């Protein structure tokens, strides 16, 4: 092995840093220690910080108050590797096959964050001064919901102060296709439980004389959308902004066809809100989804009960300007208004998170796009993701900085799945991207807003 | 204990004849042997018959070809007694409290069938010739679905030939209130499964672009009824006969108020098909009930999946003239017609059973009513039960005879539950009822049809 960068990645991947499994607590500390030493070795100040959970690592370049500061965020913890029998090579013994490194964490997120670290290493090894101040924050609890991150940001607000944040933890629109994710949907969760009889009733002995909570629940869920698939809750779309022309063009230009999406999901045909493409429906339009539905007998065959209760677990995916608390109120009110008084209804609000939007035409967005174009050799795609990345909103709220989401993951990287992998090409591209984006962000402050 | 009848019942109740628990197989044989000996003791021919499962006991009076033959059906097997900790006295150590015998099987069905046996014993002990030929059939598999009964009836068709059947295994409309159950609803079961994506999807990453099977299922279930609670499946009511005036009067006269029914079920308010009372909705009108509904995440809290499939388990309760196979076809066709082509639908038909109706104005019905009036001292209620008793249809199909369902169970007998009990008063009433109904059925053949 003559590539020292690749050697570093192989070492990093050998730590079984599974944050959710307590048996790996000492591996977490060992992995954090390794990162700190890597930072020291390339010439940064670095320290391990207690968080209340798994430690985080912070590193800094020498601070120049005349320069902007960029925070690079990543995480060294990984998903559990199970089911082990589905891995072609052991998850913590990285193996290179067909130009890809196979290991748990290869893409998510060790390969991506290490590319940034080594990118900085190259700058310093050349004896250059970085074009911006850089702070690295590498945490160990991302895969378990970054439980202690918010408090940590609060207590390290000054040390982590920055102008903009760079995160490589998203996916490219297609393999080797530069992609800037500029928006994420928010979320609001709600559970609705209908209760009728005081216990399960015999559906013969009582059926016909009482409202069946399962039937009532189904009828209630059926009021959430109109026949065309549009959300039918009054006020639901009130705060939603129309898509700008450039956004529709960007969505249209993404290298993902409707047929590819259909094959990826396995559905007989795609479907959704009229007037929007599937990409727009996923990234730019709010939804109401049933995540779970239940009531009565769940086993094999028949049991002639009239269930005492039934439930629906809903999540609303939100777009910018939609306030999660307002949406929860609207959905709850709608359900209550449509519920017959022959059953009792209970609504419980769950977790909420705001949508995120970072204008890719803002100078920092333009800087990121120039960097992506330089490194990949073609115009980057601008993508809105349908999922939520809560830390991005947390950063915005506490540090007041936007995040540039620069994808280094390929669509077939198998993050969270067996045989997770990272193309060596993406790793080297990431090392170059780090240097390019710092350079462009350094320029951005000189450009007029 | 000076009451020999009560002594017999206590002995009978001490057998833990739980048909579904294989550990009790020898108790089943011992119990059947006890019944045979009881029959021999009162002066009948009797034998234990193999059925392929638990044995049945058949007994006969001396046959007189000039007389009609009445088959008395009952069962000696009982429900499991669990949960044992909820019994005030052990389930197989019968205890008398407040004029009731507490034991598993006290009402269902040992107390009721033994009343018939001892009623015959009294006739023979007085040296009388029974007014009709009587055959007793006491089986041991009623609580497990009478699995071998149909084949047994087929192979004993001649020996069990009869003009009419008497069964005491139903409930009185109110305590000490004579009740003839003259109709039972039929049943048709169906499962509907909707499948969309090839696996559970992330509801953020894909939500909005594919039909959610749980949402689609809810919308499908919502098409089964109209806003007023009437079944909305085309053709569903086609074969349903209007209720005769005497039936509506009989339903109205039942000693059960709407408020009592509401309290019994525990619902905030009763509800059902417009134009009918709750009693009519239960006994005389067909229904479509959801017995089970499921899809996606069933655990605590939130999991943001877009489920790959969702199911509904339905049973239709049917009234006379509704053909179960036709109804299954109608419901299946309706579901398929309303299912969007963006999900796949699979319909599986389950068990079926026809509704039962025995005109209580038929001479045998009138005979039963006279007997009930004589013994209880007031006009009997005529009741349609909402549940199904499949053996009644089996008897009708194989032996060609109708069943008179003469209730001896009180509404608070706790059949199938802890602290099952049988009022001693009902037991003695049953002994007298047996004699009265044989006398009246003996007369019935002399009356013009």
What's the short story on this structure?
Chain A is of the alpha+beta class. Chain A has helices at 4-13, 25-42, 106-125, 149-155, 213-221, 245-253, 258-265, 278-283, 324-338, 363-376, 390-399, 424-444, and strands at residues 45-49, 56-60, 69-75, 95-97, 100-102, 133-139, 164-167, 179-184, 186-195, 201-202, 287-296, 305-306, 309-318, 344-353, 356-357, 381-385, 402-406, 421-423.
Describe this structure in words.
- Two copies of one chain form a homodimer.
- With 449 residues, chain A is of the alpha+beta class.
- Chain A has two domains: 270 residues, 3-Layer(aba) Sandwich (Aminopeptidase); 123 residues, Alpha-Beta Plaits (2-Layer Sandwich), CATH 3.30.70.
- The first copy, chain A, is 33% helix and 22% strand.
- The first copy, chain A, contains twelve helices and 18 strands.
- In chain A, the strands form four sheets. In chain A, strands 1, 2, 3, 6, 7, 8, 15, 16 and 17 form a nine-stranded mixed sheet that branches. A four-stranded antiparallel sheet of chain A has the order 11-13-9-14, with helices on one face. In chain A, strands 4-5-18 form a three-stranded antiparallel sheet.
- In chain A, a hairpin with a 6-residue loop joins strand 1 and strand 2.
- In chain A, helix 1 packs antiparallel against helix 3 and helix 4 packs parallel to helix 11.
- Chain A is globular.
- Chain A starts with a helix and ends in a 5-residue tail after the last helix.
- The mean pLDDT of chain A is 95.
- The interface between A and B is large, with 81 and 81 residues.
């Amino acid at each position: 092995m003559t590539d020292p960068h690749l050697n570093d990645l192989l070492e990093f991947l050998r730590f079984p840093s599974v944050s959710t499994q307590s048996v790996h607590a000492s591996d977490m500390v060992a992995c954090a220690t390794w990162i700190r030493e890597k930072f020291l070795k390339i010439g940064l100040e670095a320290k391990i910080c207690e968080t209340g959970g798994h430690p985080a690592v912070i590193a800094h370049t020498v601070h120049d108050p005349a320069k902007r500061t960029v925070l690079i965020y990543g995480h060294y913890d990984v998903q559990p590797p199970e089911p082990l029998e589905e891995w072609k090579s052991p998850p913590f013994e990285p193996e290179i096959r067909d130009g890809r490194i196979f290991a748990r964490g290869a893409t998510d997120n060790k390969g991506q964050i290490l590319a940034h670290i080594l990118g900085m290493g190259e700058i310093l090894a050349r004896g250059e001064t970085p074009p911006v101040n850089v702070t690295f924050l590498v945490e160990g609890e991302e895969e378990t919901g970054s439980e202690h991150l918010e408090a940590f940001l609060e207590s390290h607000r000054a040390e982590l102060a920055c102008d903009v944040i760079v995160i490589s933890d998203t996916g490219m629109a297609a393999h080797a296709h530069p992609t800037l994710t500029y928006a994420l949907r928010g979320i609001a969760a709600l559970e609705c439980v209908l209760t009728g009889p005081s216990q399960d009733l015999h559906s013969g002995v009582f059926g016909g004389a009482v409202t069946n909570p399962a039937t009532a629940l189904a009828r209630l869920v059926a009021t959430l959308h109109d026949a065309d698939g549009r959300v039918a809750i009054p006020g639901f779309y009130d705060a939603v902004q129309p898509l700008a022309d450039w956004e529709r063009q960007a969505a249209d230009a993404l290298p993902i066809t409707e047929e590819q999406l259909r094959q990826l999901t396995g559905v007989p045909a795609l479907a959704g809100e009229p007037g929007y493409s599937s990409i727009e429906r996923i990234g730019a339009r709010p939804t109401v989804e049933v995540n779970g539905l239940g009531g009565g007998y769940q086993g094999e065959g028949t049991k002639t009960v009239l269930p005492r209760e039934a439930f629906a677990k809903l999540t609303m995916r939100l777009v910018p300007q939609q306030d999660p608390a307002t949406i929860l109120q609207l959905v709850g009110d709608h359900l209550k208004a449509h519920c017959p008084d022959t059953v009792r209804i209970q609504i419980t609000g769950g977790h909420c998170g705001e949508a995120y939007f970072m204008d890719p035409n803002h100078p920092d967005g333009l800087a990121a796009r120039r960097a992506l174009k330089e490194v990949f050799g073609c115009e980057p795609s601008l993508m809105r993701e349908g999922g939520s990345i809560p830390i991005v909103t947390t950063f915005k709220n506490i540090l007041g900085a936007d995040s540039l989401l620069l994808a280094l993951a390929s669509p077939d990287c198998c993050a969270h799945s067996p045989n997770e992998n990272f193309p060596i090409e993406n790793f080297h591209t990431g090392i170059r991207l780090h240097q390019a984006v710092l350079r462009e962000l350094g320029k951005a402050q000189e450009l007029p807003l």
